[in-house]
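Example (one chain per record):
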Amino acid sequence: MTTQQINTVDSAASQEGFSWRIFGPGILMATAAIGGSHLISSTQAGALYGWQLAIMIILANVFKYPFFRFATDYVYDTGESLIAGYAKRSKVYLWVYFILSILSAVISTGAVSLLAAVILGFMLPASLEFSTITLSIIIVAVSWFFLIAGHYKLLDGVTKWIMIALTAATVAAVVIAAGKPTVMAADFVAASPWNLATLGFIVALMGWMPAPLEFAAITSMWTSAKVKTDHTTHRQGLLDFNVGYLVSAILALFFLALGVFVQYGSGQEIEL
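Predicted structure:
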């Protein structure tokens, strides 16, 4: 789709207003971001240091915002994804991104599938005994089925409901945890994160918050598919992105709160 065609669609669609259909890539990014950074790192940060690292989570989301937003702006301004942009600049850029993505994808997919498998294992009844590896293989297989059978359209539709359920469950969990009385260990001494010993943890927390920067290129591919299937406008695309990004940032603080309300000061040892 050329820039002129996009502008024509933008002018026509701007009269339609906003509807549920405009949401997609931004929500997809939010659901993809809520993994190790939120479920593990944010919760650990709250459990270990209380509210002290909330500022680091906020700063990470603020400083990374322009880089992720650029992906959305680029698609609507040029009609192509960042991957296509890399290819136009030079094949070298494309190959560098490909190699980095392969390395990152193997690690990320393995880590997230194992994390999902552990969570699923706790949810299954005791009568169903599966190893963590088996569950992770099942999860990856189901994910591949969604992508191959339904492509972007099915992923777009399903992810919205997953995000709604995840948000509602997280908020409810925080409210329930906040309503319970806080029990501090008698010998509890608040630890400070502002030292060299915890620098690695803070770097990892901020590096994966809300997601690694290569997600910008992935988001641009989702946005490009969204423009082709639903003909969304630039304004609608930015609304979708901003909502998804904001929800991801807020949920990071909610997971931090879970760590604070459930485990901070309990005296139970937590491994980084």
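Caption: The two ends are 47 Å apart (CA to CA).
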